[in-house]
Amino acid sequence: MERVAVVTGGTRGIGRAISEALNEAGYTVAANYISSVEKAEIFHGETGISIHRWDASDFGECQAGIARVVEELGPVGILVNNAGITRDATLHKMAFESWDQVIHTNLTSCFNMCRCVIESMRQRAFGRIVNIGSINGQAGQYGQVNYAAAKSGIHGFTKALAQEGAGKNITVNAIAPGYVDTEMVRAVPEDVLEKIIARIPVGRLGRAEDIARAVLFLVADESDFITGSTLSVNGGQHMY
Ligand code: NDP
Hints:
Layout: E1 4-7, H1 13-24, E2 28-33, H2 37-47, E3 50-53, H3 59-73, E4 78-81, H4 96-124, E5 127-132, H5 135-139, H6 145-165, E6 170-177, H7 183-186, H8 190-198, H9 208-219, E7 230-233
Bound molecules: NADPH dihydro-nicotinamide-adenine-dinucleotide phosphate.
């Protein structure tokens, strides 16, 4: 089993649950973050998981960050592209910066991170890449042309890279979470959130651990026949 796993945005929210689940399963986890320094340090203190600060939307920072991880922990066998932000507004009110930041943080980061590990994965003929998409990349969402475009792009990126990696035992899959109880969703106004929950057939928001469970399944050595797929984890809200 390849041991070193990198999780972008891996110190809080869904990423934290993914880092912890991988750690408990025996992987050596490098949890990346960008701005929440104190939360990352608390996470490190509570879990013992190593933390690594860089901007996943910046190619040069990803190169330097991955080089440090490889030096400290060894070659990267598992990559979870989880970092993401929202900058919601309807298109007619959306600033260019909100478009640009969301595309770079949510989509360009996948290119950056995959590009930094793919050659080593190809040489070692092993890789497990999981990209965190979104139900809103599958179905669209009012006020989120930037986010829906970025997440939809992730799904296309996943299928294309899966074809390139297939002959080298590198699987590339996406997970499309529905609404999960994290700070990102707690930022949604309460009345809007109530309406969202009413549309989820299982009757609750997702838990970060629900997504982590799907990641563990996809990165297992035995999951080598599963590639180019998108696993929806959304309580039945959108069946795609
Ligand atoms: P949070 O807002 O709770 O956490 C986002 C994470 O991304 C943080 O760890 C943050 O780091 C990190 N991050 C943001 N920008 C960068 C960057 N440039 N470089 C490195 N790390 C960065 O989000 P969630 O946990 O809710 O979401 C995680 C992923 O799941 C995202 O991709 C999101 O789009 C997706 N998703 C979430 C859903 C939900 O309902 N919550 C539904 C569908 C998809 P820091 O802590 O330093 O700020």
